[in-house]
User: Fold this.
Amino acid sequence: MRYAILGICLGLIGCEPVEKLDTQRKPSSSPVAERTTARRSTEREGESAKVAGQTPSETPKASAEEVPEQKQITVEKPASTEEEKKEDPPEQAPPIPESFKPLNKAKNLFFEKAGDVRRVHLMAEICLREGPLEVLLCKLNTKEHESILHVDADAREIHFALIAAGAQPGTPVKFVPKYEGATGTKIKVTLTYCEKGKVKTGTAQEWIKDKKTGKDMPHDWVFAGSKFFRDPERANAPPYYMANNGEIISLANFPDSMMDLPVKSPKEALDLIYEINTPKIPPLKTPVLITFEPVLEKK
Assistant:
């Protein structure tokens, strides 16, 4: 009742309606009140638009200068300094004379007898074309990361074939109490392979380069003979031939080598003396016939 009387009095003197002065009353949530509030909000927006020189329906638009043009970003791959080199396909295997007698089931180990001359031949394969060397020839799946050639054959069978050809095993290298080089019959090693369809033969030394001098490896190998190890827990098993660990024809001195250099040649990675003479090496997986010829003393 008192609010009604107060509203009448204020109306008589020209003041705003009472609802504006009653700040303690909660705003009405009725539809009428909502429409009234929306209308007043629109009127205020219209007045602001007139001051800015726009009609209420106009919406400010950004000029072309204000919106930068979006450019498509293309990421380019860095250009290589040199074209990738494609590995040449392997060459065909060199021919095997009919006079060569196979010595194993794989038919990659052969024996040759020509008069008084006896030789052993082994068909191996190129497995590495560049880098430092510990061995020239390793058994399959052993030392391919540091050997030019590998072969799927038992090194023990090669050992016995060399004896049949007249070679005598000596002693592997020793380091204790002091260095003693490997001994045994000297073995001449030659390599036969195909190059662009033509059969070529050369010394194994041509494929091996001295890292300091840049010249071919100057030494011949000797038949050190490796070692036979008998497992005490397998008394009936044949002894294990240690050269099957990978050192069939070595360039660094190893006590397990079947064939080794008779001179001091460290096996530590930083001290390796020899590396591959890459320009001389055929493509990877090219078959190569290795010939072992014992250098026998004349009687």
Notes: Residues 1-33, 48-60, 78-84 have pLDDT under 50 and may be disordered.
